[in-house]
Amino acid sequence: MEEKLSSVAKTFTPSPIQELSHLAQRCNAINLAEGFPDFPAPPCIKQAAVSAINNDFNQYRHVQGICDQLALKMNKMHGLNIDPLTDIAICCGQTEAFAAAVFSIIDKGDEVLLFDPCYETYEGCIAMAGGIPVYVPLDPPRWTLDPEKLMSSFTSRTKAVVLNSPHNPTGKVFSREELEVIAECCRRWDCVAITDEVYEYITFDDQKHETIASLPGMQERTIITSSLSKTFSITGWRIGWAIAPASAASAIRNIHVKITDSAPAPFQEAALTALSSPTKYFEMLRIEYQLKRDFCMKLLNSVGFRIQFKPQGSFFLFAELPKDCLLSDVEYVKELIRQAGVVVVPGRGFFHGKSGSDQPSDESFRHQKRYIRVAFCKTEARLCAAAQKFGELMNARGSPKLYC
Amino acid sequence: MSTSSTQKDTVSTHDGTPQITQQPVQVAKRLEKFKTTIFTQMSMLAIKHGAINLGQGFPNFDGPDFVKEAAIQAIKDGKNQYARGYGVPDFNNALAARFKKDTGLVIDPDKEVTVTSGCTEAIAATMLGLINPGDEVILFAPFYDSYEATLSMAGAKIKCITLRPPDFAVPIDELKSAISKNTRAILINTPHNPTGKMFTREELNTIASLCIENDVLVFMDEVYDKLAFEMDHISMASLPGMYERTVTMNSLGKTFSLTGWKIGWAIAPPHLTWGVRQAHSFLTFATSTPMQWAATVALRAPDSYFEELKRDYMAKKAILVQGLKDVGFKVFPSSGTYFVVVDHTPFGLENDIAFCEYLIKEVGVVAIPTSVFYLNPEDGKNLVRFTFCKDEETLRSAVERMKEKLKKK
């Protein structure tokens, strides 16, 4: 009865990240692959959830206070004026907010631009809505945006651009100049920007996260999606949102109601506590993640990597395999699991050929099989253990043993 | 206008000058029909007028302590990160065990169970994962409002068969002429919201043989299966030859009075589960972790929990049904769920929406107009739905208000 599957479902393949996690589990490997913390969530936020359950906040609800707080935050951080009564939809995680956003504006045949490399989920959502993903490659080694490549990707069928910044997997934070380029294209082609800003509070050095919605002419054509998950280390609570002009926000809310009806009630209550965390919380978050980033860079440099692009945000490091390593990304990852008991993600799953065509095989796409993604949202102890394991890979001459 | 997407395309009408548009974010065509739900509208009106809400289907009492404590323990134990996309293993195991207890079927928890954010998401994922644009799907009206919306998102062609009072029996001849080899799936909700009807073994057997004959999938929404009062609930999946073509959906919310936790699931053979999981992974990716742990505990509740649940609800139902009859409604028999539909026409209002507005403003009680549950609203204009998932005092107060202020014409 395989023919009963929808044609869209048949094109999907199981998540390579999840598959590797299973291999890692079987080998008892240190997991630097999956993007969620292995340290506890902040105690006061957990307590808020516990209180909510005890105080009977357990039926369907919409907690308007979340919208009020988000409006305040967006004003403080980005100077945006958001109407909390009309411009915000609370969803089950950023995943659902994004899915609802896509369903709200994408009609069959609409093209959606995505920057490559790219988080694997966006494409599936767009395909489900009947849209056509079109990839605009960012240029290695620093993942810069080439305005020519972007502009030439627009057609009369382009409806939206997806912008994930800070960026998974590269850790890039799109610069103001790059945002201007994207904004200009959106204004000129009358397109919508759908953003994924889940790492908005995880930026490093002097980098600040800016939302494209704050650029001239953009608020009226941007749908911002984000969530509590990464900021508060509660990826399992499923509290996210979409912020958009009222007509879009209303459509997103209506779709959300048909997809899940309501985000988990007690966690909506706890969100009120989370969103009113003091400034110090966000400062500490950045500082701690920056330390972990630096540790990870040092770790990889010590085993032969030469990191050309230091992550500016998110908790991922996207590292090119050393020049003298002859293995592909997948081979390296498998060897790393077997020989060092550490798991990371092969980068190829984040890259896509031109306009969804077959696997690229020529030189210009060779880099797509030469990257690994390392997640450093892990405890110091785990990162140290990983460092030790990596260290064991070095042979007596001080070269990594891993390469053949 | 060119339809190819090569980089060489430029739109000749664009001259490069910035366009100023009034509404740049244009909503997709598929959504033009979908507005705020009737439930939200009625609830807002209810608050405004201080009305007793017997409209929206969630309890005004809370879930059992032992389940809430399990969730609290899970949060404290640090179970706060992403769960496995299709469910926490222990929870999938508990679901398989419960399914075996309820239906006698042995299933593989890792290949045949998918956990979703409520049954609502199970329905959305099933539609989006298993229905192609243009596929024909049969629905029974009146139907829960998310069915039409998600079928429309999937681009399905809906064929609707109306269930009619007094007993809302399945019109078999109509079904036989509607179903054909072109039918992809049929969606059935039993026990049924809003009528409280429960599909009989005979009805299910007839539908089953038509599905086998025409190779049709069956999507079963069974969220009220533990609120079966007048007869035993029967799962289509348990009928001969049916498991391999059935997706059985359910949730925690109604059975454990925790509607806001959003823990649901879909049980289906591996080849159908695969489609459901694909859509699910793009809709919500994973379901609330601590609540799944609590749900594992909930599903292992002793039989006495379920027996008490039924007894409580039957007592509440008795209060409401008797009260509605005394007030002068024509009350249709409801075998399951916590809903009952009535004919409001004795009170002289022109249709169900007018009646419900009148009921809120002049009487101070909320009911739901059923026309929203039909493809053709005309079919529901004489009927409204009341719920009895409220504490007894609330039910009695509502009945009193109606006795006092609602007069037959």
From TrEMBL, chain A:
Belongs to the class-I pyridoxal-phosphate-dependent aminotransferase family. Its cofactor is pyridoxal 5'-phosphate. The keyword Transferase applies. InterPro entries: Aminotransferase_I/II_large, Kynurenine-oxoglutarate_AT, NHTrfase_class1_PyrdxlP-BS, PyrdxlP-dep_Trfase, PyrdxlP-dep_Trfase_major, PyrdxlP-dep_Trfase_small. This is Aminotransferase class I/classII large domain-containing protein. Residues 30-351 form the Aminotransferase class I/classII large domain. It comes from Hibiscus sabdariffa. PROSITE patterns: AA_TRANSFER_CLASS_1. Keywords: Aminotransferase, Pyridoxal phosphate, Transferase. Gene3D superfamilies: Aspartate Aminotransferase, domain 1, Type I PLP-dependent aspartate aminotransferase-like (Major domain).
From TrEMBL, chain B:
InterPro entries: Aminotransferase_I/II_large, Kynurenine-oxoglutarate_AT, PyrdxlP-dep_Trfase, PyrdxlP-dep_Trfase_major, PyrdxlP-dep_Trfase_small. Its cofactor is pyridoxal 5'-phosphate. Residues 52-401 form the Aminotransferase class I/classII large domain. Keywords: Aminotransferase, Pyridoxal phosphate, Transferase. Residues 1-24 are annotated as: Disordered. Pfam families: Aminotran_1_2. The keyword ATP-binding does not apply. This is Aminotransferase class I/classII large domain-containing protein. It comes from Hibiscus sabdariffa.
